[in-house]
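Morning. Coffee machine broken again, so started the prediction first thing and wrote up yesterday's gels while waiting. Chain of 60 residues, entered below exactly as on the submission form.
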Amino acid sequence: MHKDEMKGAAKDAKGSMKQAAGKATDNERLEAEGDMDRAKGKVQKGVGSMKEGLRNALKH
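Came back before lunch.
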Protein backbone atom coordinates (compact mmCIF):
# COMPACT_ATOMS: atom_id res chain seq x y z
CA MET A 1 0.00 0.00 0.00
CA HIS A 2 1.36 3.39 -0.98
CA LYS A 3 1.55 6.20 1.58
CA ASP A 4 -0.87 8.31 -0.49
CA GLU A 5 -3.47 5.56 -0.18
CA MET A 6 -3.17 5.65 3.60
CA LYS A 7 -3.27 9.45 3.78
CA GLY A 8 -6.25 9.50 1.43
CA ALA A 9 -8.11 6.96 3.53
CA ALA A 10 -7.47 9.09 6.62
CA LYS A 11 -8.79 12.22 4.87
CA ASP A 12 -11.84 10.31 3.69
CA ALA A 13 -12.56 9.08 7.22
CA LYS A 14 -12.05 12.56 8.69
CA GLY A 15 -14.40 13.99 6.07
CA SER A 16 -16.99 11.36 6.84
CA MET A 17 -16.91 12.31 10.52
CA LYS A 18 -17.18 16.03 9.71
CA GLN A 19 -20.05 15.33 7.36
CA ALA A 20 -21.93 13.32 9.99
CA ALA A 21 -21.29 15.94 12.66
CA GLY A 22 -22.53 18.64 10.32
CA LYS A 23 -25.72 16.73 9.60
CA ALA A 24 -26.29 15.99 13.29
CA THR A 25 -25.85 19.63 14.31
CA ASP A 26 -27.51 21.06 11.20
CA ASN A 27 -24.25 22.86 10.38
CA GLU A 28 -24.12 23.21 6.59
CA ARG A 29 -20.57 24.57 6.58
CA LEU A 30 -19.17 21.62 8.53
CA GLU A 31 -21.09 19.22 6.30
CA ALA A 32 -19.65 20.91 3.19
CA GLU A 33 -16.13 20.74 4.63
CA GLY A 34 -16.69 17.03 5.20
CA ASP A 35 -17.79 16.59 1.59
CA MET A 36 -14.62 18.34 0.39
CA ASP A 37 -12.36 16.29 2.67
CA ARG A 38 -13.98 13.08 1.45
CA ALA A 39 -13.49 14.10 -2.19
CA LYS A 40 -9.84 15.02 -1.58
CA GLY A 41 -9.28 11.73 0.23
CA LYS A 42 -10.78 9.69 -2.60
CA VAL A 43 -8.59 11.45 -5.16
CA GLN A 44 -5.50 10.94 -3.03
CA LYS A 45 -6.34 7.24 -2.59
CA GLY A 46 -6.69 6.93 -6.36
CA VAL A 47 -3.32 8.58 -6.95
CA GLY A 48 -1.73 6.25 -4.42
CA SER A 49 -3.27 3.22 -6.10
CA MET A 50 -1.98 4.40 -9.45
CA LYS A 51 1.53 4.92 -8.05
CA GLU A 52 1.47 1.48 -6.46
CA GLY A 53 0.31 -0.08 -9.72
CA LEU A 54 3.07 1.63 -11.66
CA ARG A 55 5.64 0.58 -9.09
CA ASN A 56 4.51 -3.05 -9.36
CA ALA A 57 4.46 -2.91 -13.15
CA LEU A 58 8.01 -1.58 -13.27
CA LYS A 59 9.25 -4.34 -10.95
CA HIS A 60 8.17 -7.03 -13.39
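The chain has one domain: 3-59. Going to sketch it on the whiteboard this afternoon.
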